[in-house]
């Protein structure tokens, strides 16, 4: 068997058509070296402490900095995107203080499970095609949790560009693309990188309630509500509690205001459709959840991974910001919770609600 196949448009076309058939909305091919200076920027991000308590980013810095540090045999990377566009404007719920705002990406089945299964299927189809050509081929699939810099790779593959908020922006899907990748030993012709189309716009920077962007194209995760509500395991710092509003899992503000969303469409993948119960959930539904109830309520959801206690902490901050005095009894009960972080958040929320009542 030969271990190398010439670069062919036909093989790339085959992979793209199979990907489209599996429900992927964006497809691009890139060489490992196209990641450019992204590894250096990541090193600067960590050196500045902007990763906060996410020590796994520092621990995987070398492997994350370049695809070939993760897998030396990789010759080509296929980058794929799946649209998860919301049906309505995610910012609308922020005006409903008695309800909890859950980030769009977490309102449905965990995207890791959805996309990884499809990536494995696509990799299998490519492998089968290679066997018919008598070509030796190896591949690895990655979705978000592996030390892969998906966004700069996606930009180099032509799927979009990293906006001033550091997230990927697509001319076709706006802010709403889940990313996955297939590392392969095949030599496929690469696509042309996308250019930056942000221009003078600063909407994503201006809307951030906690001022998490020290400069365009830079993020200080320690000030980001997504980090504070998901990655942060301790109490929410006092200075960020009021700006959090009713955001109880993640934040979509910088994504939702992007003008390129005018081209966005709702997700077509059925498994990524918003669960009805996650569209505009009442805070009162959550404040009484014990661990078993939390696990049952968020089975198969990304929300489940932060655990009941962190989630309850977030809901209590939202309750304190709600001015909804009907939540006082539920908050008072949580003063006797077994978790000290929950108790502290309940005390803060109760003080805020009593001030509102006065």
Structure description:
This protein is of the alpha+beta class and 358 residues long. The chain has two domains: 1-234 and 251-275, no CATH class; 282-358, Leucine-rich Repeat Variant (Alpha Horseshoe). Helices cover 39% and strands 9% of the residues. The chain has 16 helices and eight strands. The strands form three sheets. Strands 1-2-7-4 form a four-stranded antiparallel β-sheet, with helices on both faces. A two-stranded parallel sheet has the order 3-8. The longest helix has 22 residues, at 111-132. It is elongated and about 75 Å long. 44% of the residues are buried. Mean pLDDT is 93; it is low at 1-6.
DSSP summary: helix tally: 16
Helix content: 25-40%
Sheet with most strands = 4 strands, antiparallel
Topology, number of strands: 8
Number of domains: 2
Average predicted confidence as pLDDT:
93
End-to-end gap = 80 Å
Structural class: alpha+beta
Using only C-alpha atoms, the radius of gyration works out to: 22 Å
Shape: elongated
Strand order of the largest sheet: 1-2-7-4
* SSE ordering: HEHHHHEEHEHEEEHHHEHHHHHH
Residue fraction in strands? 5-15%
Unreliable residue stretches: 1-6
Quick description:
The chain is an alpha+beta fold and 358 residues long. Helix content is 39%, strand content 9%.
Helices and strands in order:
Layout: H1 9-21, E1 26-30, H2 38-47, H3 55-59, H4 61-65, H5 67-70, E2 76-83, E3 101-102, H6 111-132, E4 139-142, H7 150-156, E5 161-162, E6 168-169, E7 177-184, H8 203-207, H9 225-231, H10 238-244, E8 247-249, H11 253-256, H12 283-286, H13 291-297, H14 307-320, H15 328-333, H16 340-357
Parallel strand pairs: 3-8
Antiparallel strand pairs: 1-2, 2-7, 4-7, 5-6
